What does this fold into?
Amino acid sequence: MKDCIFCKIAKKEIKSYILKENKFCLSFLDINPLTPGHTLVIPKKHKESFSDLTLQEAKGLFSLVKSLMKRMREKLKVGSFTLGVNDGDLSGQTIQHMHFHIIPRYPGDGGKSIHSIVKFPLGEPLEEIYKKLK
Ligand code: 5GP
Ligand code: ZN
It folds into this structure.
């Protein structure tokens, strides 16, 4: 997509620190890392949401996530990670080209777990949600 910074990174039109890629996806260092090694994995084609990915793209993405985690364990000597996607405006997505964050975690990094992101359960019984989703 024209004017999408991550499309430009995928086409190598602008510089980024590319780590690994495959036919469908590409990974590179986040320009403003939350911790050393913070990496983004994107589909090469412009897709806004993770749910828009083809199965091949999803597989390509998770293949990179898996192998990068292994590399980070070895090379950065980390044993913990926070993994995730800000998917949609309300989640805090700032770049509308889907990207998966790999955030290596370090002793004393001050960060919290995914459970600290939001707490808004509204008291809806699990049974009701289950009926909608099943
Ligand atoms: P979001 O909040 O949309 O999940 O995260 C966007 C991420 O993209 C941020 O962590 C930000 O630092 C990163 N980012 C934004 N622009 C660039 C860029 O031009 N190059 C790289 N490598 N990362 C970027
Ligand atoms: Zn794009």
